[in-house]
Give the backbone structure.
Amino acid sequence: MEVPVLLLRESARLPVRAHAHDAAFDLHAAEDVVLAPGARATVPTGIALGLPPETAALVLPRSGLAARHGVTLLNAPGLIDAGYRGEIFVIMLNTDRDAPFAIAAGDRIAQLLVTDLADVSLVEAAELDATARGPRGLGSTGV
């Protein structure tokens, strides 16, 4: 599948996979941003996608930014629907309590995973089938 990518700013970079068999493409910042400790910012990527019908894209955090700097994505994963043709923005959060985090235009800030969508319909039901887990949720499987 080919997905058209429109570069909207001079500083925009085409998303690429860092390694041949990586699942996701690296997204780059299109402008400089400084995240103060505990602050969040909406960082432009300078790109728009032409996702085909029956696909979607997910914007995911980069593990290295989280592990080394405490920087993550506020709404991870971010969902991009196939019909959206506007600029992709990444909502970043600096969880570090002391150190600001500087982002330069061109820095890798997130990952983009394009996925096919199953043909799913939600239908009202009077009851659900029984499973071993049942209705047990949040924390029910222990530590």
In short: The mean pLDDT is 95. Helices lie at 63-69. Residues 37 and 100 are 5 Å apart (CA to CA). The chain is about 5% helix and 35% strand.
